[in-house]
Amino acid sequence: MTVQETGPLTTEAGAPVADNQNSETAGLGGPVLVQDQQLLEKLARFNRERIPERVVHARGAGAYGTFTVTSDVTKYTRAKFLSEVGKQTETFLRFSTVAGNLGAADAVRDPRGFALKFYTEEGNYDLVGNNTPVFFIKDAVKFPDFIHTQKRDPYTGSQEADNVWDFWSLSPESTHQVTWLFGDRGIPASYRHMNGYGSHTYQWTNEADEVFWVKYHFKTDQGIRNLTQGEANRIAGEDPDSHQRDLREAIERGEFPSWTVQVQIMPAAEAAAYRFNPFDLTKVWPHEDYPPIEIGRLELNRNPQNVFAEVEQSIFSPAHFVPGIGPSPDKMLQGRLFAYGDAHRYRVGINADHLPVNRPHATEARTHGRDGALYDGRHGGARNYEPNSFGGPAQTGRPLWSATAVTGYTGNHEAPSHAEDDDFAQAGDLYRLMSEEERERLVANLSGFIAKVSRDDIAERAIGNFRRADEEFGKRLEAAVQALRG
Ligand code: HEM
Questions:
Q1: What does the record give as the reaction this protein catalyses (predicted)?
Q2: Contact at 8 Å (CB) between 474 and 428?
Q3: Measured distance CA(329)–CA(271) in Å, rounded
Q4: What is the distance between the alpha carbons of residues 228 and 465, in angstroms, rounded to a whole number?
């Protein structure tokens, strides 16, 4: 329900307000009175307008849209929203940057979040991805340390090149993603002109419970457009909201951005012998191994009406699956299955799932969970336990996804290494794919940042990782850093 924009101004309790310009005083020029409900209520409410910003991806913009199935994938998954060519599902997508705070500029070198909610008839399915097919690390236990180096230093209060490069150089698995980030795609021109990726490997299960491993790709139909570092520096200063404004205005103009949705599909039996660990988030599956196949089209066609209610309070969780889709054993993904719900309960509250943007739109949530702060009483007097003899909602007995086999002992194990797994080969492949001009920009972007590192050993270790990816890459970087450091 939208509140009427006409009629008398009221207090929060709906009583008419006589004066919204002058607070109430004891006599002319006297002190202000505690009985002035309008003043006290306004000041108190104002103090509570903010909720904690997201610990990462604080800065973002969202839009509603439609996902349409364009090819038959029923032999791979029994997810109902994917069950028929032509079938449409409502979606909400929140784009974001990662490191900046809520008020940060959009045009910066940083991965972009691509968090997509499908409001399916079997519940909401969230695919919480980025505009990059890979990530910096491959174990969730390293995530808080990694983010500490991207965010503000406890002493200086700013992002510090020393911390960033110390961590990256000591985490050589980041070499692939860092090469990607400092290349041309590291600063998209807008949210519309970039791809999205599920990044992790996920499980699809069909009606016969056969298992497939999948990776999602959202290819922009607008074409890829990027900013150079110089262009980004200018735009970040002139229009910090550049991405947010671009998205909203394009939709207002009726220019609905769209993405062609593709998946790479690996039959489960092929995972064990694949040349890379298929659950390693720092690696792609080369397209010659598993060619992407088109499955749908995503269009964004409706702006949120209230940014706080629909974007700031929106929540996405990699643990929000629907029947026929589930997690892989990727150790990063496993950590994320916990982290997001926990963040939502802290940031938005225990009833976050029931806000209009977050609740299922094509079905309803029928839980026995109750109460908590700001509970709206949606269950009325219905019984709140299961099993019950009164026809209440009951478990189905059918898991959403298939079981995975495990062997061995518990322990702090590294993810298994496959024949061609190392931290550098795919970074080198990416470098060698680039044109000479792209390589020049990559080396300039990287060297500009590494040159800010105060300690030679950290700078040398950082360059060493790129040298291991590609000898020439390392040499050029070393020369460029030396030239800048003098
Ligand atoms: C173990 C690794 C990770 C952890 C612990 C983690 C944790 C978090 C947390 C706590 C939030 C804030 C959620 C909220 O307050 O609503 C968040 C947001 C987000 N993360 Fe991660 N993250 C991880 C890795 C990743 C990866 C690998 C991706 C992409 C492939 C990703 C994409 C996102 C996106 C897109 C958002 C913003 C969601 C939104 O728009 O509300 N994260 N992450």
A1: 2 H2O2 = O2 + 2 H2O
A2: no
A3: 11
A4: 24
115, 97 Cβ separation under 8 angstroms: no
SS3 350: coil
Q: Among all residues, which ones are annotated catalytic?
A: 57, 130
Instruction: Label residue 361 left, alpha or beta by phi (over 0 means left) and psi (-120 to 50 means alpha).
Output: alpha
Give CA separation, 8 vs 4, 35, 44, 273, 308, in Å: 10, 20, 21, 71, 25
Which phi and psi angles does 424 have, rounded to 5°?
-120, -25
CATH class of 60-145+188-354: mainly beta
The ranges assigned to domains in the chain are 60-145+188-354, 425-485
CA-CA distances (angstroms) from residue 117 to 131, 250, 280, 360, 384?
A: 16, 21, 24, 10, 28
Taking only the tens of pLDDT, the chain with its 486 residues reads: 578 788 999 999 999 999 999 999 999 999 999 999 999 999 999 999 999 999 999 999 999 999 999 999 999 999 999 999 999 999 999 999 999 999 999 999 999 999 999 999 999 999 999 999 999 999 999 999 999 999 999 999 999 999 999 999 999 999 999 999 999 999 999 999 999 999 999 999 999 999 999 999 999 999 999 999 999 999 999 999 999 999 999 999 999 999 999 999 999 999 999 999 999 999 999 999 999 999 999 999 999 999 999 999 999 999 999 999 999 999 999 999 999 999 999 999 999 999 999 999 999 999 999 999 999 999 999 999 999 999 999 999 999 999 999 999 999 999 999 999 999 999 999 999 999 999 999 999 999 999 999 999 999 999 999 999 999 999 999 999 999 987
The ligand 1 site (C-beta within 6 Å) comprises 54-57, 60, 94, 96, 113, 115, 128-130, 135, 140, 143, 199, 314-316, 332, 335-336, 339-340, 343-344, 347
167: tokens are 């961590």
Whole-angstrom distance, CA of residue 215 vs CA of residue 212 = 10
Instruction: Give the whole-angstrom CA distance, residue 340 versus residue 334.
Output: 11
Atom of ligand 1 at shortest range from CA of 343:
15
User: 355: CA distance to ligand 1 center in Å?
Assistant: 20
Phi and psi at residue 362, to the nearest 5°: -110, 5
CA 29, 35, 41, 47 dihedral sign is positive
Q: Give the closest residue to 77 by CA, choosing from 385, 326, 414.
A: 326
DSSP 404-435: ----S--S-PPPPP-TT--SSHHHHHHHHHS-
Closest ligand 1 atom to Cα of 114 = 35
